[in-house]
Predict the structure.
Amino acid sequence: MDKNGILNTESSLRMNYAIECFQKNENTFLITCGWAYRDDSPVTIADAMKIYAVKEKNISPRLIITERNSRDTVGDAIFVKKNIIPKKNWTKIIVITSDYHASRTDEIFTYVFGKNYNVEVKSVRTKSNDKYVKNEKKSLDAFHKTFSGVKPGDIYSIYQCLCSKHPFYNGDIYPII
C-alpha cells in the first residue's frame, strides 16, 4: 500500500479474490491481517484492506475482522489462530495469497493450525520471478529453523517461540511484541 493506505496492484488482486470467495459462502467473515509497517503512515495493512473491501466492494464492516498484530505470514497464521479462532470456534479457514507465496503459506498455516483444522490456500496470479522464488525458499528455511521442535498446532508453544526467536517479534528487527 502507499502512505495513504491505497492498496497496490498485488494487494488489490488478493482482496478482490478474497471478496469473491467470501461472497460465495454464507455465514462467513473476511479477516484482514497486518500491522502499520510504513514509517510514513499510521494505517495498518489490515485496515487498508478493510477500507478497500468496504469502499470498493460494498462489504459490510461488521463482516470484516481485522488482526493488526501480524508482521508477516507466520504472524498472520499465529494471531488469527490465537486471537480470532477461539472466539468463533471455526475449524475451516481459507487463506488468499499470491501464487509465488502459496506453497509457503500453506505449510505455515497448516503447521500453526494443526491437524484439527481444514486450511485451504488459494492464490492469485502475479508477475513473480526467480527472485521471489528464492526469497520464499529462504524464508521457509528460516521458518523451519525458528520453529524446529515445536509441535504443530500447539498455539501456546508456537506463540512463545514467535516471541522469543522470530526477529520480527523478539526485538531484533522490529520492536518486541
Summary: The chain has a mean pLDDT of 95. The two ends are 23 Å apart (CA to CA). The chain has two domains: 1-68, 73-177.
